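Inverse folding, one chain.
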């Protein structure tokens, strides 16, 4: 556990991850084994990803322009929601917030998505 927040640590972590993938692509491009990970192609497909999730985003526009608001529903192929995000914008300003599942707008999003996929 670090004393720094993720916001303070993200660029360092990103840089290390980029360096690792750069090394793997270098080995792949030169038909070499990677000294730590072995076959670079095998590692890129099987060793590196913890999981690969496909997420669909459904957007429900509630209003447009001066100001506008909408919902974005992020859901897995199973139909399970990952999250529902409420967006509000006015010209060159934008804000968003994740909704709790006890929110009436979250319930509305569930109703709309269920109607889309099961009617």
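Residues assigned per position:
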């Amino acid at each position: 556990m670090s004393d720094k927040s993720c916001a303070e640590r993200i660029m360092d972590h990103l840089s290390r991850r980029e360096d690792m993938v750069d090394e793997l692509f270098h080995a792949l491009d030169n038909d070499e084994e990677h000294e730590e990970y072995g076959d670079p192609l095998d590692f890129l497909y099987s060793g590196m990803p913890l999981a690969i999730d496909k997420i669909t985003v459904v957007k429900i526009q509630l209003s447009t322009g001066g100001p506008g608001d909408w919902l974005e529903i992020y859901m897995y192929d199973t139909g399970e929601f990952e999250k529902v995000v409420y967006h509000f914008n006015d010209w060159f300003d934008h804000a968003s917030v994740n909704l709790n599942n006890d929110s009436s707008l979250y319930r509305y999003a569930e109703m709309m998505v269920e109607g889309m996929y099961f009617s």
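The first strand starts at residue 55 and ends at 63. The chain has a mean pLDDT of 92.
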